[in-house]
Amino acid sequence: MVRYLQSLRRLRRKRPAQQHAQHTADQRVAVIGLGRFGSSLANELMHRGWDVLGIDTDTRLVQKYSDGLTHSAVADCTDPEVLRQLGVHEFTSAVVGIGTDIEASILVSSNLLEAEVPNIWAKAISRQHGQILERLGVHHVVLPEHEMGERVAHLVTGRMLDFIEFDDDYALVKTVAPDIATGVPLGQSQVRGRYGVTVVGIKRPGEDFTYATADTVVQKGDVIVVTGKTHAVETFADLS
């Protein structure tokens, strides 16, 4: 068998007993591949109170991140028997963070599918890679470099403060309120009818974000959160 379990370490710091008692099996995740993407994801999940099993074939990476994870292991998950011995089939979620080795990414994803892990996330380094993973049946495919590049491009070329695009050409944008949306209640501004967007949140200088309603009066300089079709929110943000 390929290189297998080097370490399976408990996190040095202990959780409070009450918090540990409230922990459920649904808050366990296996992160396979501890490169920049996988390690960042694993650390964020730990901060959110999840139990994280971090796995990589690189001993150096496992040693680097092991003290910050619930469990860690040096293992090659292209071998389905390794996955079984690690107990990954008992997890409700698994993330394949392998990017550069497409063959390994596909093999590990296939093994997780055969193990019937309910929620499988996999990183893709290209659209073609992502299409292969989708055809395999991976539940969630992410292209972090592509998505981040697209997001930054919107921020650089437009007047947006933030941009997130969802499926079906739908986006959420944070932008400074244009003059056409200020001075009157949103219900009277006809923003939705004229521009096809909905203002869902508002932030005034020195205040927290609050939900927007039909009676909300947006003031000059307010930051607003707008949703709608991607082209519509882009056009609206350009009015700022």
TrEMBL record:
Residues 26-148 form the RCK N-terminal domain. Signal peptide: none annotated. InterPro entries: NAD(P)-bd_dom_sf, RCK_C, RCK_C_sf, RCK_N, Trk_Ktr_HKT_K-transport. Residues 158-240 form the RCK C-terminal domain. Pfam families: TrkA_C, TrkA_N. Coiled coil: none annotated. PANTHER family: KTR SYSTEM POTASSIUM UPTAKE PROTEIN C, POTASSIUM CHANNEL PROTEIN 2-RELATED-RELATED. This is TrkA family potassium uptake protein. It comes from Streptomyces massasporeus.
